[in-house]
TrEMBL record:
SUPFAM superfamilies: Hedgehog/DD-peptidase. The lineage of its organism: Bacteria, Bacillati, Actinomycetota, Actinomycetes, Streptosporangiales. PANTHER family: D-ALANYL-D-ALANINE CARBOXYPEPTIDASE (PTHR34385), PEPTIDOGLYCAN L-ALANYL-D-GLUTAMATE ENDOPEPTIDASE CWLK (PTHR34385:SF1). Keywords: Coiled coil. It comes from Streptosporangium longisporum. Residues 3-51 form a coiled coil. It comes from the Bacteria. Residues 205-312 form the D-alanyl-D-alanine carboxypeptidase-like core domain. This is D-alanyl-D-alanine carboxypeptidase-like core domain-containing protein.
Amino acid sequence: MNLTELRREAEKAAKDLEAATKALEQRRAQIRESERKLSATLRELQTAERAFAQIRQPLSNLVGLLYQQPAGGEVAGFLSGQSNGDTLRTMATVSQLVAERDLILRDSGRLQKERERLAGEAQELRASNLLAEAQMGAEIETLRARSQKIVQSLTKALVKLGVKINKQGRPAAGCDPTRAASMSDFPNGLIPQAYLCPLQQRGNQLRGDAALAFISLNESYKRQFGRPICVTDSYRSLAEQQSVYYTRPGLAAIPGRSNHGLGLAVDLCGGVERFRSPQFNWLEANGKKFGWIHPKWAYVSPFEPWHWEYDPKIGSLL
């Protein structure tokens, strides 16, 4: 698998990992919302139960008291067939209170069953959510491991091609093409070293995706001309842009506006700097296959045959 294929695989793995991570966060948000609603419902039921309890107990006490008080009078007269109007009214009141008490008891029992049902649902929901989260977490770990494996393969390929290694024996972390998406976070000329990838040409570096594309272009160029591309300049810090601007007036962009400061441009030598040389013509015909172009302005104003740029839009389609 060549660098372009490895870069594409690394970018796809990073996108898959990002999508899975977002899906997990969305799932967690849904879990929190469903549990919040369920907890609110349970609290409402508990409030209703307490309200019923406050009504039920006094009513039960009153019914019991009424049963006891008329035992020697109204109730006895009623049972002997000698009841009067007071007795009948008392017994009617008692019957009504008993009926209301029974209704409250039934409602209270219904609320208790509903609470138990919802509590059971809450337990099942939490168990299901935990299982789903665990499954998604396992998927994320698998995707993360896959992404790391691809980046490791890319790293080994770069080392074999002669990319400068760091003290840990690995190319700079900036060679990871998935970091290119975050480059817009940094101002022109102020890209941290950790986000830049060294080229085979000593002292030169670009942002990850541009560097990988240039290294692939360089390998193709070597097969054609028997030597690597000659590079005089690549990424320029803001201070370097200012120095070039004042020492070479008219031949450099205003500091902070140069594509060199974005890690997307190189100045070349070794024949490429001569317009319509074999090297220039070959690069013009083949550079786009790797995402590298000679911009239109560089043909005319200012005329800079040595200046070449990486186009991320073209590169992403390769």
